[in-house]
């Protein structure tokens, strides 16, 4: 069933499926990296946690009518997704100030934005994924203005769907990164992953960090944090 290795990234491997051109297998690795690969570690069990969390979040988005690449879970560390051509954009949605926006604009950490802020970054490791504007995004990706507006509106929709889900399980969705892929018919869907590697999640009330910042800032056990997110999601995602 599993075909050849199509691509290996920092945290996952992508395989073809024999006899099935429209689908791929994503396999999550036990590696964690930060700061564009400068800081890295090997954490046995991490791939399972990311795969299970991302599967729950994507299945939830699908249920809520958002078009995503997620088809089904395959094993503890693997999932089946639709085969799309990835658009080299990182679309970040922010509800509260932290991370790069806090630094760049001199904001106080945790300040809530009146409206979610959507930002575009060019996905290019060699350039450290620079922040770009819409004109630059059109030039770099070949997307039309309408497609870029659709992408940003879909990112806001994902935020609208995930905010109450996390709220129900006592977590604040501070920000997250999405990637999009293009199908054969040129339609655009949410792809890649949705996980604490690509989101910021703080415990409601205490503001305790439970996402990759635990690793970036060395403030606790990443595996325990991710295990806690999975446990909370398993208990509350279907409510
Ligand atoms: O670092 P920054 O504040 O710009 O990150 C915003 C959000 O996007 C965070 O949730 C972070 O985990 C995610 N992100 C990501 N991959 C990147 C850059 C940021 O998943 N290459």
TrEMBL record:
SUPFAM superfamilies the record matches: SAICAR synthase-like
GO biological process, one term: 'de novo' IMP biosynthetic process
Catalyzed reactions: 5-amino-1-(5-phospho-D-ribosyl)imidazole-4-carboxylate + L-aspartate + ATP = (2S)-2-[5-amino-1-(5-phospho-beta-D-ribosyl)imidazole-4-carboxamido]succinate + ADP + phosphate + 2 H(+)
UniProt keyword annotations, A-Z: ATP-binding, Ligase, Nucleotide-binding, Purine biosynthesis
Residues covered by the SAICAR synthetase/ADE2 N-terminal domain: 5-232
Tagged with keyword Metal-binding: no
Pathway the protein contributes to: Purine metabolism; IMP biosynthesis via de novo pathway; 5-amino-1-(5-phospho-D-ribosyl)imidazole-4-carboxamide from 5-amino-1-(5-phospho-D-ribosyl)imidazole-4-carboxylate: step 1/2
Keyword ATP-binding: yes
GO MF, one example: ATP binding
Pfam families in alphabetical order: SAICAR_synt
Principal EC category: ligase
InterPro entries on file: SAICAR_synt/ADE2_N, SAICAR_synt_PurC, SAICAR_synth, SAICAR_synthetase, SAICAR_synthetase_CS
EC number: 6.3.2.6
Transmembrane intervals: none
The family this protein is said to belong to: Belongs to the SAICAR synthetase family.
Protein name according to UniProt: Phosphoribosylaminoimidazole-succinocarboxamide synthase
Organism taxonomic ancestry: Bacteria, Bacillati, Bacillota, Bacilli, Bacillales
